[in-house]
Amino acid sequence: MLEQLIPIKHVLAGFFLGLASFFTVHQQISLQPLSTAQPVKQTATPTPSVLVGSKKIKKDLVKTSPIIKPLGLGTNLSTTSDFLIATSTPVPPLSFIEINEKMKAALVNILCITKPGSPLTSITGTGITIDPRGVILTNAHIGQYFLLQDSINPSLINCTVRTGSPASDSYMAKILYLPPLWIQGNPFSISGKSLSGTGEHDFALLLISQRTDITQPFPTVFPFITPIIDENQTIGEEAAAGAYPAEFLNAQSVENALYSTIATTTITNLESFSGTAHDLISLKGNFLAQRGSSGGAIVDMNNNLLGIISTVNEASTTDARTINAVSIGHINRSLTAQAGSNLSSFLSGNIYAKSEQFNNLIAPKLTLILLNSLGFSIQSSSSE
C-alpha cells in the first residue's frame, strides 16, 4: 500500500550499464520504498573501456502484475482520463519463446563512435522500440550523444541504430525528446567525470529517420513493445529483461559480434523518488547486469514494457548484482511535468513535427551545456 511508504535516506548511486561511463548525483535524493524490502547500497566503480578500431568504446548499464494502464498502442483498450486502460481480466502469460521472439524484434543497439580529436569516448547501449513509426525509448545518458552529432564542425561523434543479432548498422535517428532536467542535473556525465546516478529523469525518445543504407526500403511499420504503467507490481513477480550486454566483449566483438540477450528475472524491490508511485524497479541480477545493457527492456510475462534498465549495483558477478530499471510510470510523470504531455498523448499526432520542434528550440540549449562541460568555450547565440 502506498500510504505505508517509509522514507529511505540514501543516495541511489548505481553505475550505468548502457555506457560505460556513469554519472554522479549532485544532490541527495531520498528514495522511498514501496515495500518492506531493505535497499541495497549502490556504489560507483571505475569504468573499463575496450578499443573499437583505434577508438575507445564505453559500455553502458537496474514483481510484475496485471496490466493496469497501457501507455501506447494496442487493441481492445478504452480511454479513461489521460490514459488507455486495459481490461482487468487476467491475461494468460506468454511463453518465454514468444517473449524472446517479440523482444528481440523490438530491441536495438545504439552505437556512437567518436571522430578524430573528439574529447568523447565511443559508447554502446540498448534501446527498445515502443511505436510502429520507429520511436525508440532509451536512457538520457545514451540519448545525450545524439545532441552532439551535429553540434560543431567536424562533428564529435556519429551514432547509429543497429538491429539484429549480431547487431548491424540499420538506421539513423534523431532526438524526439530528452528531459532538460536530466542534462541540467548531470552536465558532466558525458565527459566521464561523474560515475553514478539515481536513474531519475534518465530517459530519452529517439525517432528513426532513415536507413544507413539509403538504397534499402524504409519500413512502413517497426516491431514494437507496448509500454504500460503498472502500480500494482509486487516483490517476487517474474519479469523478463532484454538488452545488448557488452561488458565482457573485446572491441572486435562489439563491432561485429554483439548479440541481444533475453533472460527471466524477478522483482526484488520497488522504490519511489516521490513516495507516491513506483519509480524504480529493482530486479535480481543475471547475465544482463552488464555494461551495454542501459536502455534495455524490462517486460512483464505478457510482454508489456514495465521500464528500461538504467543502473546496477556493483558486485563481483552479474548474478550478485541488482538491476535497476526506471519505470514507465516515472517516465510518464517526468514527461508530463517537463513537456506538458503524458507519454500516450506525446506519441499521438505528428511526432516528426515534435522532433523538429525539440531539435530547433530545446536541443541547442542542452547541447551548449554539454559542450561547455567538455571544455568548449561556446556562448549561446540567443537573446535570452
Give the gist of this structure.
The protein is of the alpha+beta class. It has helices at 96-106, 140-147, 180-185, 251-256, 328-339, 343-346, 351-361, 363-373, and strands at residues 15-16, 32-33, 49-52, 55-59, 69-70, 78-80, 83-85, 107-114, 122-131, 135-138, 157-163, 168-177, 204-211, 228-229, 238-243, 261-272, 280-284, 297-299, 305-313, 322-327.
What does this structure look like?
The chain has helices spanning 96-106, 140-147, 180-185, 251-256, 328-339, 343-346, 351-361, 363-373; strands spanning 15-16, 32-33, 49-52, 55-59, 69-70, 78-80, 83-85, 107-114, 122-131, 135-138, 157-163, 168-177, 204-211, 228-229, 238-243, 261-272, 280-284, 297-299, 305-313, 322-327. It is an alpha+beta fold and 384 residues long. A hairpin with a 2-residue loop joins strand 6 and strand 7. The termini are far apart. Residues 1-16, 18-56 and 61-88 have low confidence and may be disordered. The chain has a single domain (2-373), classed as Thrombin, subunit H (Beta Barrel). Strands 15-16-17-20-19-18 form a six-stranded antiparallel barrel. Strands 8-9-10-13-12-11 form a six-stranded antiparallel beta barrel. It has eight helices and 20 strands.
Proportion of beta-strand residues: 25-35%
Strand order in space, largest sheet: 15-16-17-20-19-18
User: Remind me, CATH topology?
Assistant: Thrombin, subunit H
The CATH class name reads Mainly Beta
In angstroms, what separates the terminal alpha carbons? 46 Å
The secondary-structure class comes to alpha+beta
Mean of residue pLDDT? Answer: 78
Domains (count): 1
Element order, helices and strands? EEEEEEEHEEEHEEHEEEHEEEEEHHHH
Helix content: 10-25%
CATH architecture, please? Beta Barrel
Shape: globular
Spatial extent as radius of gyration: 19 Å
**Number of β-strand runs:** 20
Low-pLDDT parts are 1-16, 18-56, 61-88
Tally of DSSP helical segments: 8
Q: How would you characterize the largest beta sheet? A: 6 strands, antiparallel, barrel
